[in-house]
Design goal:
The longest helix has 19 residues, at about 95-110. With about 375 residues, the protein is of the alpha/beta class. A six-stranded parallel beta sheet has the order 7-6-8-9-10-11. Helix 4 crosses helix 5, helix 4 (about 95-110) crosses helix 12 and helix 12 (about 305-315) runs parallel beside helix 15. The chain has helices spanning about 15-20, 55, 75-80, 95-110, 130-140, 155, 160-165, 190-195, 215-225, 240-245, 260-280, 305-315, 320-335, 340-350, 370-380; strands at about 5-10, 20-25, 40-45, 65, 85, 120-125, 145, 170-175, 200-205, 230, 250, 295-300, 365, 385. Helix content is about 35%, strand content about 15%. It contains 15 helices and 14 strands. The protein is globular. The structure holds nicotinamide-adenine-dinucleotide and 4-phospho-D-erythronate (DEZ). Nicotinamide-adenine-dinucleotide binds near residues 207 and 208.
């Protein structure tokens, strides 16, 4: 049976994984409509497509795959009620988000003349991303506080209350966006909780924009000039609050998870789900398509101070300041153009995002006598070679 697949044009390796399963139609994810699905058996999306009754009613879609970690754009109850198979890509780009946070912390440290180990970092949500971040930071010697009402400390390490977490130097958000129940995360960080943070705390949001009340954050930063925000995600994307962007220490267009490795892993995971749903054998594996990294090795030839070596290695793998600079200049240009330019520019920055690889793909050569440096770089996830 040939499966007709409608796929977001921004999902990589669609032909490589799916061409021998059926026919493929690529459409723009942001503007996908019910008309695009008239002949579809399977739908593959990213986070910018709202998958709900108004998209699916009247279609013959039997499987929906989202090549993303987040699932807040998918009405899973509707899928279940209509017997439509579903697969997301849990953890696919967790490593890329952790790399983003490490690069962000290295910039924060530079601006404050601090080392990684001078900070207490709070992690809100200890799932795939939060737990990997916790492991990396703790092994690097950073003090970590974590909160997660749905997790057992036996599985994810010690947990504290949200009140305690708000006292950390850095608060990094890693929850899904949820709107129901006692622990709903929409506006989890609101004016009152911002008030309870240290005046010079740094809030990092790389999960979903609406987990933070963006207006309250902007006002808080106006009143507390020492407070820093590092923002990858924005309330009402692709709308962007330019005022908030201008106040943020680092601003990026929802690309924390955009490593090649993470995106391709996402495609492989939905491919496996689609094969299972349609009873097709799994013939393709990510390793067939993942290229070798361009930068082969970073070499430290002599004793380098720990913080400097960490910063150099992290930024050789991922330099957040480049993404920040590209976004600011594009958005400022767009703000002088007509209606809709900011939205279009936000999406364009994401569509044309340059190639980036995960930290574990970068080899780092360290003199064999520098044991502490070797250990710390391994803890940060690098492929360390003693020489
Ligand atoms: N910016 C990006 O490019 C990017 C990339 C990947 C993921 N994300 C986002 O990051 C989120 C986290 O990713 P993940 O893979 O770790 O998801 P996950 O589902 O594995 O983990 C989320 C964790 O948050 C916890 N949680 C839920 N409500 C909470 C609350 N009120 N307080 C504290 N913890 C709470 C859950 O129990 C869970 O452990 C995703 O949902 C996605 O929206 C963004
Ligand atoms: O949820 C995720 O996996 C990430 O937010 C992902 O990077 C979103 O990317 P998009 O689907 O919007 O391209």
């Amino acid at each position: 049976m040939a499966v007709h697949i409608v796929a977001d044009e921004n999902i990589p390796l669609i032909d490589e994984f799916f061409a021998d399963i059926g026919t493929i139609t690529r459409v723009a994810g942001r503007t996908m409509s019910a008309a695009d699905l008239s002949a579809a058996d399977a739908l593959l999306v990213r986070s910018v497509t709202q998958v709900n009754e108004s998209l699916l009613a009247g279609s013959n879609v039997k499987f929906v795959g989202t090549a993303t970690i987040g699932t807040d754009h998918v009405d899973q109850d509707y899928l279940q009620q209509h017997n439509i198979g579903f697969r997301s890509a849990p953890g696919c780009n967790a490593q890329a988000v952790v790399d983003y946070i490490l690069s962000a912390l290295s910039v924060l440290n530079d601006s404050r003349g601090q080392a990684f180990t001078d900070l207490t970092v709070a992690i809100v949500g200890v799932g795939n991303v939060g737990l990997l971040l916790r492991q990396r930071l703790e092994e690097m010697g950073v003090a970590v506080l974590a909160v997660d009402p749905f997790k057992d400390p036996q599985d994810v390490g010690e947990l504290v209350s949200l009140d305690e977490v708000l006292q950390a130097d850095v608060i990094s958000l890693h929850t899904p966006l949820t709107t129901d129940g006692e622990h709903a995360t929409r506006h989890l960080i609101n004016a009152e909780r911002l008030q309870r943070m240290k005046p010079d705390a740094c809030l990092i949001n790389s999960c979903r924009g609406a987990v933070v009340d963006n207006r309250a954050l902007q006002q808080h930063m106006l009143a507390q000039p020492e407070f820093e925000a590092i923002l990858d995600v924005w309330e009402n994307e692709p709308e962007l609050d330019l005022e908030l962007m201008n106040r943020a220490m680092l601003a990026t267009p929802h690309i924390a998870g955009y490593s090649l490795d993470g995106k391709m892993r996402g495609t492989e995971m939905v491919y496996q789900g689609l094969c299972e749903c349609f009873g097709v054998p799994v013939r393709r594996k990510l390793a067939q398509f993942l290229p070798e990294p361009g930068i082969k090795m970073v070499t430290f030839t002599d004793q380098v101070p720990m913080n400097q070596a960490l910063r150099t290695a992290i930024r050789a793998a991922y330099e957040i300041r480049v993404d920040d600079g590209v976004m600011r200049s594009a958005m400022i240009r767009a703000s002088h153009q007509g209606d809709g330019s900011l939205r279009a520019t936000f999406d364009q920055l994401r569509r044309d995002y340059p190639l980036r690889r995960d930290i574990p793909r970068l080899k780092v050569a360290v003199p064999s006598k520098c044991h502490d440096l070797q250990d710390t770089l391994k803890a940060a996830g690098f492929d360390v070679r003693a020489k």
